[in-house]
Amino acid sequence: MTSNRITKHLVVWSTVLISTVLLTVGCGNQANQLDHGWSLPVKVTDSIENLAGGIRMHKFQNTIMGLQSLQGGSAKFFFLNRTNNSWFETPRMSAPTGYLWGWWALDLQSKRLLLPDGYVENGQLVMRALIGTIGENVGLRDAIEKKWITDKKSLFGETGPNVRLNDLYLGVGAITGPNLYVAYCLDGETVTTHSEHGPFNNGVFHSTDSGETWQMERISDFEATDPMVCKTKNCYYYFATRGLGEGYGLWFSRNPVEGGPWENPGELTKTYATTYGRYAAVAEDDVIHACWMDCRNDMRRFNVDGPNIENDDIVYRHRKDSDLGWSKEIKLSEGLLYSYPPSMSVEGKDIVVAWAGIRSAGKHHNEYDPNDIYYVTSKDGGETWTKPFMVTDRAKEGITSGKPQVMLLNGVVHLFYIQGALEKPKQISPGLTKLQQGPWPIYYQRRPFPN
């Protein structure tokens, strides 16, 4: 028997530059206005290494749960004590080897958690899912593992022996009652005189019986990465980013809750960021909200030391289940030169989006350089927005604030972010330099949703 771990990814870079009409909000000369309505920052824990290893939040009963994925398959769980607005940590938990906590999904009603994994064994795709229940004081309990196998023919159709499975991209899935969804993008590799990417298979693994049996639902067959699934009142939505061969972009599909085929893939934007692009999608009632890093106004620069440098915008759209299409695009980051991955939360008609960025900086600026946390809000379901306000004001001191995670609950905005300063490389011997950075503090702040 031969077994190899298939390459799995959480990150993706994407996009080509296309000029389109874009609505903007705010005022450029006010982009650095500091909002003093936030509580003082309180340290909750530390990151793994500089901006890596933050806390992802999720609504849980009538409070908020935070999960921090650690190295070696372990994770920390944090819960908000709403009585005194403090956070407490439950005992650390570990998942079986191979599971990555970055892809977890949670069902609010049943408190069940879904954690997927996948690998190749004997030319077949082996998928497995860890399913358990979250307890506020005990973490994950009653966990069981389900496993299913899909052969190459089912994934790619009739192929020759020179086609093999290659890269697997898993994303955040969905749990609603007995329905479980695991989002995936799968790359094949065709070997002739050289290796070529393809064929491809993007879609979901769907279980209608709480994980006992699984069916593959293929949505597209072009190169894609960074998938996720979320559910509105009437539809399941699938998002993923197009690969280089398809012209970078962000696309979607959907199917009705009562069942049926997935719609043909539709385009959300053609100008998704080409370098370290990220997006956020949130369902609320019968509306899906999406925002992303956008490169249409980018002055892209070649970088000999790493990925190209981009100065991206944050752009937003929404769609009701009954609508024939998406709303017009709105630029949220007006007045900022650099903007980095957004986080979004929705409660009824109230929406908050937060990201790290800076109003002006040099042409080689990146996410790890000094930035501050900015946010915008909408009170009418995304039709109109405030200008960007600053939460932090430390970039002028050489401090980096980044990787914000925002959650809106009962009219209060809750925010996590990582903050620190890059250490200068240390020479530990002639010709040998240490580049590793240490952990940075993760801070928490809150404020009432602005009127």
Explain the overall architecture:
The protein is mainly β and 451 residues long. It has a single domain (3-448), classed as Methylamine Dehydrogenase, Chain H (7 Propeller), CATH 2.130.10.130. It contains 1 helix and 35 strands. It has one helix spanning 152-156; strands at 3-4, 7-9, 23-24, 42-46, 56-60, 63-69, 74-81, 86-89, 93-94, 105-106, 112-121, 124-135, 139-150, 163-176, 179-191, 195-207, 215-220, 224-231, 235-242, 250-256, 266-269, 279-284, 287-294, 313-320, 330-331, 338-339, 343-347, 350-358, 372-378, 389-390, 400-409, 412-420, 426-429, 432-434, 441-448. Strands 1, 10, 11, 12 and 13 form a 5-stranded antiparallel sheet that branches. It is globular and about 60 Å long. It starts with a strand and ends with a strand. Residues 1-5, 10-21 and 24-29 have low confidence and may be disordered.
